Prior knowledge:
Helix content is 45%, strand content 20%.
Amino acid sequence: xxxxEQQLHPHRDVVDTELEGQESVxxxxxxxxxxxxxxxxxxxxxxxxxxxxxxxxxQCLQREFIVDAExxxxxxxxxxxxxxxxxxxETLDVKEFVERPL
Length: 102
């Protein structure tokens, strides 16, 4: 189970695209799993792509949707747990993050 202090990022084999209406589609190239995200999920996905912590993503949701901290935290954790089960995200390796080109 994910915690708010964690940083996760999209799995290297996942491609994504945003559709009109701010929904997103994810495709895991190896497993061929196709996953859609609603507006809230798309905001969470954007945060994962920026390598924000889950707490930072929750805080972004709180500002964007004017929702309380507990509801935003639960929303982020539920979606991230599902994305982990589907192998669409992985934990951020600090060494990999440092070595990534800007």
